[in-house]
Each structure stands twice: as structure tokens, then as C-alpha cells.
Structure to design on (234 residues):
């Protein structure tokens, strides 16, 4: 017996549950395809950016990366750090012009340099939030689908016992429809939850990887830009 026939021969309650689970299944597969496309694009653009970045380690060259500063998470993090660095550079230069002993200003510069890190951290949070889109939906499907299947199971068993009580017999022809509904909704629930769980863990792992790598990237950029600011006091 095929799935369509099982659906037609099920009770209304079981059919409603299976329709909901079918919607969840189509939705989760749509998220999977969309995220694969999105993360694949991010990976390609990031690889291109990092190749250029590793070849140009001089901070003065970073501003010349062009569109690569806007088409990937690493580039946008770097761009936010550079923007903050330029603002601080103007502020530090103006302050040093009015000071006789530049070395005493190093503490002030160190404090200001933290603004560069905070700017990049804010951008990183925004980027990770963007990468995490749709993951809460997958997590919801993982949690809800088995419970919907369980609801169908309980409902089917309840109908089977009600039929037994109404007819005063436990013959297989009486209990079979209810038990069938109970089993099929459980199967549907698991068929939705298992792929959704795999998709969620796969994407969560990749997003966590980006977060970890961005932290290292931010530390490296911060160290270089901080060094550039400190050279102004020499």
C-alpha cells in the first residue's frame, strides 16, 4: 500500500497531522537548499577575500580591497575596523598636536584602540546573526515533529479503544484502523525530524566555525591597527 492510499484511508485527525508534517518537511528541505546555496556563496567569497588578505599584510593596503570589503563577512568586519581606525587616527593626531610628551599619550591611545575591536565585534555579531537565519525554524521542526507524531499515535490508540468499547469486541478489524493511524503519524513525525536535525547540526557547525575563525581574524586585525595607532605617538 502506497503512502497516498494510507493517507486517504486514515482518520481526519491523522490526515491533519500528516498534512502539517508534510508542510514542515517541505519547509525544512527548502531551508536546507537555501542555506546550502547561501553558505556556499559565503565560502567562495571568503576564500577569495582571504587569499587577497594573506597576500597583502600591510594595513595601508587593506582599504584598497574594493568590493571584497563588502561581499563577505570577513571583509565587512575588516571594513568596520578600518572605519573606526580612521576616525581614531584623526582624533589621536589632533590630540598629539597639543601635547609635548607623546609617550604619555600611549595609555589614551590604548583605550581608544579598544573601539576598533568593539566595532569589529558588533559587525561580527550581525554577520553571525545573518548566517543563523532559519536555524531556529529547523530547531522548531526537530522539536515539534516527533510530538505531532506522538499526538497522532495517542489519538489513534484512543480511537481504537473507543471502538472496542462501542462495539464490545477487540477484533482486529475494529482496532486495526486506529493502530494504523497511530503508527503512520509516528513514522511521518520521525521522517520530518531526522532530516531537520541533520540539517540543523550541519549548519550550526558551519556557523560556529565561522564565529571561531572571525574571532581569530578580529584579534589579528586589532593587533595590527593598534600597533599603527601607537606609532603615531613615537
Amino acid at each position: 500500500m502506497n503512502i497516498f492510499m494510507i493517507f486517504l484511508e486514515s482518520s481526519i485527525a491523522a490526515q491533519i497531522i500528516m498534512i502539517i508534517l508534510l508542510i514542515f518537511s517541505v519547509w525544512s528541505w527548502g531551508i536546507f537548499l537555501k542555506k546550502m546555496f547561501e553558505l556556499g556563496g559565503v565560502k567562495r567569497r571568503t576564500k577569495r577575500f582571504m587569499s587577497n588578505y594573506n597576500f597583502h599584510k600591510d594595513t595601508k593596503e587593506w582599504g584598497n580591497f574594493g568590493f571584497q570589503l563588502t561581499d563577505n563577512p570577513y571583509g565587512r568586519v575588516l571594513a568596520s575596523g578600518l572605519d573606526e581606525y580612521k576616525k581614531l587616527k584623526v582624533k589621536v593626531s589632533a590630540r598629539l598636536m597639543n601635547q609635548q610628551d607623546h609617550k604619555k599619550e600611549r595609555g589614551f591611545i590604548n583605550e581608544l584602540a579598544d573601539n576598533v575591536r568593539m566595532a569589529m565585534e558588533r559587525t561580527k555579531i550581525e554577520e553571525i546573526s545573518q548566517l543563523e537565519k532559519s536555524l531556529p525554524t529547523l530547531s522548531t521542526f526537530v522539536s515539534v515533529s516527533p510530538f505531532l507524531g506522538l499526538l497522532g499515535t495517542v489519538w489513534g490508540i484512543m480511537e481504537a479503544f473507543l471502538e472496542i468499547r462501542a462495539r464490545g469486541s477487540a477484533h482486529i478489524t475494529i482496532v486495526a484502523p486506529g493502530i494504523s493511524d497511530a503508527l503512520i503519524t509516528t513514522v511521518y513525525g520521525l521522517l520530518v525530524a531526522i532530516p531537520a536535525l541533520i540539517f540543523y547540526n550541519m549548519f550550526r557547525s558551519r556557523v560556529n566555525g565561522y564565529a571561531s575563525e572571525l574571532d581569530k581574524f578580529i584579534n589579528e586585525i586589532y593587533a595590527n591597527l593598534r600597533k599603527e595607532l601607537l606609532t603615531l605617538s613615537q
Q: What stands out?
A: Residues 3-55+66-231 form one domain. The chain has one domain: 3-55+66-231. The mean pLDDT is 82.
